[in-house]
User: Fold this.
Amino acid sequence: MDEEYSEETIERFQDPEYTGEIKEADATGKAGNPSCGDVLQISLKIENGVIKKARFKTYGCMAAIASSDELCEMLEGKTIEEAEEITGEDISQELGELPPVKHHCSILGTEALQNALENYRKK
Amino acid sequence: MTEKKVEAYLDNGATTKVDPDALKEMKPYFTEKYGNSESLHKKGKEAKKAVEKSRRTIADTINADKKEIIFTSGGTESDNLALKGTAYKNKQKGKHIVTTKIEHDAVLQSAKWLEEQGFEVTYLSVDEEGFVDSEELKQAVNDRTILVSIIHGNNEIGTIQDLKTLAEITHDYSNNAYFHTDACQSYTKTELDVEKQNLDLVTINGHKIHGPKGTGALYIKENTEIDTWQHGGGHENGLRSGTLNVHGIVGFAEAAKKNHKNKQKNIQKMTQLRDKLIQGTLKKIDKTKLNGPEGEKRLPNNINICFNNIEGEALSGYLNRKNIYASTGSACSSLELEPSQVLKEIGLTDQEANSSLRMTLSKFTTQEEIEHTLKELPGVVNRLREMSPL
Assistant:
């Protein structure tokens, strides 16, 4: 199972640093469906339009967990506008390219993010 | 001093370690007795002798006659030949085939292909433990039915079908149907007797029983009408052309002989370890469930457990890091991104199927491997559950 994944993906999967849920988060978003094998939840702490903290909880495969962790790292310190620009392809690239069959896992991360930001704007 | 690395190879349903005795028997056939078994000179004759002796050995393990065994490259080829070979040879008698929804892909995909060629296929469903309903089989089979193919021991959930009853129904309800079983997972791990169980075609292979990869056989009962599927020089009574894999066949036969001889002892040992791992896992970790039957109707080496709220590929990935090698039926692990069809057929939801892990033992599995797994598994499951939003 490992050969298809890059070193970065495996490392992230094995030792994710951004797991968890922020209490009193400013924004939370969810994407995916357990029947498809992936559910991703993201929670954000936002101050003055800048994402200060990002955490995830993921039910999913190695690629889904690694993508979630990568996304959270990319988000911290970014403005909301910058965060909105992040694509699945960006996440995949940071991970040293996900196998093609796993690209949807990175897209799922951006979907959860979009949902979180939408939820933030409605507040 | 470095600590001894404990590894637990729990993927014997995928493939097994070659028995050192089988390897020893094979060796001379690479560099000394390397003749083509069809050649008429001494080199050919000694290869031929080894092949025929192996054929007798394999036949003896399933109570068959040696002329009823043909060698192939493995389970997939034997299944393809059994299905396509009988379908094409007997299509004038009827174009109906019966199989199940929990077959190995070698049977399932062959059946689907035959459907595209104009055959009609009935796929039997199974109960929540994976057993075929004999009443459903009775309703499906008629004189237009030319073949019934039912897997013996299921590769994912370990269910052992009552072949004798199913084969008898097949023969009682159709004058034209042969009964085939894919016995790759069950061979030498439970009873398999072609006479007693009334079988016409049986698929077995080498690498699931500590023989080499690339070896297999198809038992074809005498007088069975079957066409070849691989044309060429007419080897194996014209049913399977191609130079025989002499060293492979020798290794396959030695592995089969040894497994057969120690069958009861091996079954007892694997069953004890299996039940220890099942009971230990269910007791130590909450929200877990055994998929498939318990006890004697389950393959002695098969374990399949659903760990709620965590995904199978991630679980096997974390276990891999602890040197525990298992497999999963999750969608993420498959090329099609679809969860295991077998698990869904026995009533699991997609999510439950995605959360299931298969651990398969062998006669070489040790207490130490089982204990290592029981020690590491709870921590790994907890870690992933903490990470899960479900």
Q: What stands out?
A: Residues 20-261 of chain B form a domain with the Aspartate Aminotransferase; domain 2 fold (CATH 3.40.640.10).
